[in-house]
Amino acid sequence: MIKILIADDQALIRESLQIVLSAYKDIEVVGTVGDGQEVLEALKSCHPDVILMDIRMPKMDGVLCTKQVKEHYPDIKIIILTTFDDDEFIFSALKYGASGYILKGISTDELYQAIHTVNGGGAMINPDIATKVFKIFSRMAQSNFAIQVEENNVDDLSKVEWKIIQQVGFGLSNKEIAAKLFLSEGTVRNYLSTILSKLSLRDRTQLAIWAVQTGVTTRNFGDDSDDE
Question: Is residue 31 situated within a structural domain?
Answer without folding.
Answer: yes
